[in-house]
User: Fold these one by one.
Assistant:
Number 1:
Amino acid sequence: MPPPAVKTLRDLIFWQYAKIISESSGLGKKNWGFIMGKFKQLQEGEIFWNEVREYVKEREKKDECIFCGRKTDLTIDHLFPRCLNEPYDEKNMVFVCKECNSSKGARRLYEFWAMKSGLEGAKYGVPRIAEGKIFVHNILKQICILYVLLLPYLEIV
């Protein structure tokens, strides 16, 4: 759950990017002080989300499975499955081994990761590359759907 400082959809986007920056820096996704600092820098325009996106794009390893690290039998996986009418573009694709691709099946990334590593693993253990790609490409869509579903329950002030 994001902290109380996250009040808008834009803030939520910045919060997620701050977590990606923290993970990329080797500090993990639980270093709240660092994450909050980056969150504020994003809010104030001192750093920009597209810089993070380009960093993630440059760091993608095309020679190993992003889920398990294997370097053999690699194939392309769609983070959001094509059978769910998700896009066929580079933002939705990663390199994974055939075994991971097969076990992921038609699940979305977080569904797969929760099945593989439990809820805690899905919250903090998803590979940064996959999480960054999903966030850049699809998280806004998911948040909008969630917002529409929750709208009847939200107190409008």
Number 2:
Amino acid sequence: MINENLKKIDRDEIWRRIQNFSFPILTYKNKEQFRSRPMTIVQKHFEGRIFIFSHYENEDYLNEEEFKEVTLTFSDKNKNFMVLRGKAKLSNDQNIIDQLWNSKVSLWYPKGKKDSSLCLIEIVTTEGEIWETQKGFFATKIEELKSRMEGRPPKISKKIDFSLPHPKVLS
């Protein structure tokens, strides 16, 4: 469910941020426990959907018939963070696989893009959160000291809750 009170952020802004982060962590609930794994995003643009290569046997929670709730968590060396929430399902759409296939992907999937166990995790993003660190290392330490003396939490980052427009379909 999308919260109508969230700040609207356009896809270009989210894509710019995604490109500055390293490997996202994909998290979903598998039966009674959460499962998290580092993943790689290989697409060249963002239209509200994220595609990640995987193997069917690794995806016992996801299937091709229905979307399930997931989160992608990103961080960078400057201690900025972003969480994207959405719904995911598996896809074997050969057109999208062909569009996204590259030499980096082929290293991880040596049987090639016709491998019958190869699939895409298709994530339709709807909303998320960004935490921007607003102070450098020394300014952060000074703020932590001040906050301790004043008995309040430190003010070292800005949080932005956002929603995304409905995604476009890749063609």
Number 3:
Amino acid sequence: MGKTTVALILVVILALSAGLVTGLALQRMPAASPVPRPARTPLAEELQLSDGQITEMKNIWESVREKADNAFADAQSLDRARDDAVYALLNREQKAEFATIQKGYVENLAKLKTQRDALFDEAVKQTERILSDAQKQRYREILASRLDRKPADAMDWLPKSSVISTQSVSQPN
């Protein structure tokens, strides 16, 4: 398993964990509160954070998440550039062999994606079974805003614009 795949899996796990923690925290909040209070996470409880500290911590970590997402995108760009440079070094026969290897890789990666999405979608369904209708609606809104997808939609984490895509290596030059 490549470094990029491992990093991607870790980012997805972190994002899902953040969503779960947020969902659980929102579930514990009172239905009608005169003054909106920041969600109290287990960490906030453990550290006995004030509302102001919770808000500041949320801002800090949301900024980090955005920067980490950008770093991940930059790492993918570096991978593509490296792959393009290595591919350019190959002769016609090597490109043909590489196309076969790459096709298998992309197929296996797609299978992993399908498995991961099925696990996530099943967890969403199980979560929704324990929520009230109002909680389900809010949970779906949280998922849509945090994951930029509905549970049944596919997240696109397959390689895109690189010679590693099956389209560009299927016909060697």
Number 4:
Amino acid sequence: MSLPAIILIVLATFVAMEFVAWASHKYIMHGWGWGWHRDHHEPHDKRLEKNDLYGLVGAAMSISMFAIGSPMLLGASAWAPGTWIGLGILLYGIVYTLVHDGLIHQRYFRWVPKSGYAKRLVQAHKLHHATVGKEGGVSFGFVLARDPAVLKQELKAQREAGIAVVREALG
């Protein structure tokens, strides 16, 4: 496999993972998977959350793709793109961990951005956490953040329509 093809697969997988994360967050974590995700939306002083189990799901996806692409495991049946898809998933997981758990929730380091895209990411995710419970909500992605002013308007419309309950500080 050529180097340009490898780079393209890794980058395409990384980009695709933002959509996978968005859809998983909106339809699984805020749907039938709320049992694992709930504690992430509630105040607590625990070091780990049930929500962290979703990281293990992502790791399993990456490891599975590495295995599918491994000639050491599968011999001639190995599918070479699997290795590079696994790498793209792994890289997305690293960025997700640094951005979501590190920057936004400050689990690993303390830094509050005052401007730029990092500030936009933090604002968008704080607006995601503005709702009480799993219903309604905005900003389900992790690396791509929409304009916070637009998200505030969407939250307001959801509150007025009875779709979302917004926390007092933002209500």
